[in-house]
Amino acid sequence: MFDPKKLLNDLLGSQIPGTGSTVRDKGGQAVQMAKDNPLAAGALAAVLLGTGAGRQITGTAVKLGGLAVVGGLAYKAYQNYKNGKAPTEATAGQPELLPPPADTSFHPSQAPQGEDEFTLTLVRAMISAAKADGHIDDDERQKIAGKLSLAGIDSDAEKFLLSELERPLDLDTLVAGAQTDAQKLELYTASRLAIDPNTRAERGYLDLLAGRLSLPDALLDHVEATVSAAKVPAPGEQAPESGVPGSGKATANSRW
């Protein structure tokens, strides 16, 4: 069995497939790989994280492991929301991103289903978001399969990824994989990390996911601001328009 946490680290761009370098070292190279041949280039992290659209994770976020990045961003967004800060005010100056505190439900050790199981849920969330615009068709999946070895991903992880890429969207199962309110926010955060919602399909997918998770609009605005602060334009690229507003589907009796 592969290590889910290592796979999440790989997908969050700690290594650029085929280069032996980190995103922080050679973010522009990953972007160029994706631009030249987005899926056949083997830049899996670029595909799943929107790097091909000219974005890369930056700052202290690249120093943390995958679970710490997702949990840290979700916790930061939640704390800013709970403290009544405006999203733009909360991310001013891009303060250091820290892992979520161990005594909060955002910390991986608090996962009722176990860290590995929830990590797989986050990976599935990222892949589902990456497929939202319908661009990963059968031919492109085969190209990805032919290049996965460049990323140093083991065979079991490769089989899992290819299976998930082929699997039809199952939002019910995905949403059910988040068992706490904190996990629901982390699931949405991971999905938003995976893409820069520049198409109607991507925006619609995130809106639908937010509605199914019953996340309040104001909290979504904080996730958007927090993730955007952690993902900056790669060299030579123009930043996309800022992403998704609130879903408008949160219920009046939201737990948040």
Please identify the oligomeric state. Answer: single chain
Structural class: mainly alpha
How much beta, percentage-wise?
Answer: under 5%
**Average of the residue pLDDT scores:** 73
Q: Percent helix among the residues?
A: 40-55%
User: CA-to-CA gap between the ends?
Assistant: 36 Å
How would you characterize the largest beta sheet?
2 strands, antiparallel
Count of helical stretches:
12
Q: What is the ordering of alpha helices and beta strands?
A: HHHEHHHHHHHHHE
Q: What is the spatial order of strands in the main beta sheet?
A: 1-2
Number of strands: 2
Low-confidence stretches: 14-55, 234-254
Shape estimate? globular
Using only C-alpha atoms, the radius of gyration works out to: 17 Å
In short:
This protein has 256 residues and is mainly α. It has twelve helices and two strands.
Which features characterize this protein?
256 residues; mainly alpha; two-stranded antiparallel ribbon; 12 helices; 2 strands; 53% helix; 2% strand; disordered C terminus
What does this structure look like?
It is a single chain. With 256 residues, the protein is mainly α. Helix content is 53%, strand content 2%. The chain is built from twelve helices and two strands, in the order αααβαααααααααβ. It has helices spanning 4-11, 23-36, 44-49, 66-82, 87-90, 115-130, 138-147, 155-166, 171-176, 181-194, 200-213, 217-230, and strands at 55-57, 231-233. A two-stranded antiparallel sheet has the order 1-2. The longest helix has 17 residues, at 66-82. The chain starts with a helix and ends in a 23-residue tail after the last strand. Mean pLDDT is 73; it is low at 14-55 and 234-254.
